[in-house]
Model the fold of this input.
Amino acid sequence: IVMTQSPLSLPVTPGEPASISCRTSQSLLQSNGNTYLDWYLQKPGQSPQLLIYLGSNRASGVADRFSGSGSGTDFTLKISRVEAEDVGVYYCMQALQIPYTFGQGTRLEIK
Amino acid sequence: QVQLQESGPGLVKPSGTLSLTCAVSGGSISGSNWWTWVRQSPGKGLEWIGEIFHSGSTNYNPSLKSRATISVDKSKNQFSLKLRSVTAADTAVYYCTRGLTGTTLSDVWWFDPWGQGTLVTVSS
Done:
């Protein structure tokens, strides 16, 4: 499954919203009703960390300014008000079928 | 909470075998999780390599053309990756992570936590 993110670079002013798109080459909806799309953030010099799982569920400890939405092949990660600590590269990933695949990444930077 | 730590040589010669181990602490490797390897080539994105269940069941990325082998050592609470016939294209930061299962054992929902990663350079 091919994952396509946009934009690849996202300069944002602190306090402003941000949005990242992830489109997939096939639907991530399984017959059990789950949509197998996760979002990860890789902060500078760190390992990826889970933000959102199954399309729209915030992981434990993730700030509520992060939200995931979408269905089928079209997904969005939104940050309601960007903070300086949000800088890094955001990846979407599909866990529907092996091999699991990631998007190219979207680099968020502070203006 | 569960923590993962990768270890292994940082330099491997071309055509050699890359060998890494991931030590699991704070939890048992025998839980309902898929223990996973992911790599990141310099300046590039993330690539899923493969996974193992504590029973020994494995799945691999076909892009690696059968060069990868993942094994588990329950007595040491760790799992390992071997990648044969390496080239410069295998130079990357290698991460181990845990795939959490959902309603069934084949149903991976997300990867968490991740190890800190280890850089492996393929060079003579």
